[in-house]
Design brief:
Number of strands: 0
Low-confidence stretches: 160-170
Mean pLDDT: 86
């Protein structure tokens, strides 16, 4: 269920584009994460570097889905920059490398808040993105994926871009105020 949710979240966020984030499918990445997670629980030991790395890959994938959806709703250059940064972090070989990539350009995240205005959908997506960055467990990521899927399926991405455009002012109205 969760592997399919992960894949569906990415597909929904990127539609009509195909998300090409991982060397394998998103579902395969999540399945590997689940496999290592279950093995780790059976060992009852400290989480391995592999588990931490796979957790970060899934978390980056969820975060990318939310930022991609956000960037579709807001023509925000900062969101595109954050999206590229997160994609770059997917190429890291370990968790330290991920941290190094993100920390180097951490200021990019501030730009996400410049153009929210009063758009409830953008705020909700940004909230899910923030919670994703703060997530520290598989259960939290699973919950965020389901919440995100529900929200993204309610959004009409085509209508929201048209609604945000400024309508031209009525010329009669302009004459009356002069």
């Amino acid at each position: 269920m969760s592997a399919r949710s992960f894949e569906l979240l990415l597909d929904t966020a990127f539609a009509p584009e195909e998300p090409k984030l991982f060397d394998t499918s998103a579902a395969a990445v999540y399945q590997k994460f689940e496999q290592v997670f279950k093995a780790s629980r059976l060992d009852k030991g400290k989480p391995s570097e592999e588990l931490s790395y796979l957790f970060e890959m899934v978390r980056l994938g969820v975060a990318i889905a939310f930022i991609k959806a956000y960037s579709r709703l807001a023509d925000n250059e900062g969101a595109r920059d954050v999206l590229e940064l997160l994609k770059e972090a997917l190429h890291a070989k370990n968790t330290r490398e991920i941290d190094k990539i993100i920390q180097k350009k951490i200021a990019l995240f501030d730009s996400l808040y410049h153009e929210i205005f009063v758009n409830e959908q953008r705020e909700l997506i940004l909230g899910l993105f923030e919670r994703t960055l703060d997530a520290s467990s598989k259960e939290e990521l699973d919950e965020l994926m389901l919440e995100g899927l529900e929200l993204l399926q309610e959004i009409d991405f085509e209508a929201t871009t048209e609604d945000d455009e400024d309508e031209p002012l009525d010329e009669d109205f302009l004459k009356d105020i002069k």
